[in-house]
Amino acid sequence: MIILCILLFSLISCNKNKNQKVLSHREGEMTIYVDPSNKNLLEALTEIYVMKFPEVQFDFVYKPENQILQDLLDTVAYAAFINTPLSEQQTKYLQQKSDVTPRSTLLAYDAAVFITSIENPKNEISMDEIRTGILEENNKIIFDNGNSGNYNTVKDKLNLKIPEGKSVQALNNPDEVIDFVQKSKTSIGVIGLDVVSEEDSPKVKELLTKIKILSVINPENEAISPSAKNILQMKYPFFKGVYFIVREPGFGIGSGFSRFAGSQQGQLIVRRAGLQPNYLWERQVQVNLKDIQ
């Protein structure tokens, strides 16, 4: 009887340790579904996380945002890096379906930006031009994907309704849009700022010799560039959040990564990428140089 109890205790302990290993944020494998416009930031964050925890491996599945949302609801995807959080209704649905409450964490602010060939004399674009260019179907405005976070951002900000029988002009990813506007020099592409925001990147430096980012003319007739400052102050009309969504029990890789990405170190990576961190704000200290009495 004593031997049986010892064996039973050992078996329980073994299973417990096995479960703890599965839920560890320090080791294991996680697949993250990511909208291609958020690729650079996610890869920068996960690269440093893996340096901290070498036994963690990340795999990426690149899909447009709307398809990822559907994969989350179908419980195909367990983690996502997109530009919209789960709604309250979607969160409750997944909680009921899987007995695990998904968490949506806002990590950064990005923007949908309008690009054109460096040879195009145009430097700014109005909201009316954007709306008309989308509806005319003449290759004037080309999205990175008709289901992407960038399309959702522009559509929502403009409160745009696509008439029946009309279609949005779109390609498959940001790289195709960049190639397209270089060939069609009067066309305007829509991509994520994250694609071209890291100023120290040799790839970005090369891209910005071929394309330029247009300022957007707001209702007050001001030309607003998608700078981190204008995004922080919500002056640039087409800003968007960057959310990490994870559905896992306990404190696993997803929870560990979410905590890291929202930490001081993670948010400095966001800033280095040229985006606006959600948890890190510049401190302005006023120094009084008068003599102390």
Q: What can you tell me about this protein's structure?
A:
It is built from eleven helices and twelve strands. The radius of gyration is 23 Å and the shape is globular. Strands 1, 2, 3, 4, 6, 7, 8, 11 and 12 form a nine-stranded mixed β-sheet that branches. By secondary structure, the protein is of the alpha/beta class. Helices cover 39% and strands 22% of the residues.
List keywords for this structure.
single chain; 293 residues; 9-stranded mixed β-sheet; 3-stranded mixed β-sheet; 12 strands; 22% strand; globular; disordered N terminus
Supply the number of helical segments: 11
Q: Provide the low-confidence segments as ranges.
A: 2-22
End-to-end separation:
83 Å
- Classify the helix fraction into a percent range: 25-40%
As an assembly, this protein is single chain
Mean pLDDT: 88
Write down the Rg.
23 Å
Order of helices and strands: HEHEHEHEEHEHHEHEEEHEHHE
Query: Which percent range describes the beta-strand content?
Result: 15-25%
Shape by Cα distribution? globular
Biggest sheet layout: 9 strands, mixed
DSSP strand tally: 12
* Global structural class: alpha/beta
Topology overview:
Layout: H1 2-23, E1 27-34, H2 39-52, E2 55-62, H3 65-73, E3 79-82, H4 88-98, E4 103-117, E5 124-126, H5 127-136, E6 141-143, H6 149-158, H7 174-183, E7 188-192, H8 202-207, E8 211-213, E9 215-217, E10 223-224, H9 228-232, E11 239-246, H10 253-261, H11 264-272, E12 276-277
Parallel strand pairs: 1-2, 1-3, 5-9, 6-7
Antiparallel strand pairs: 3-11, 4-7, 4-8, 4-11, 4-12, 9-10
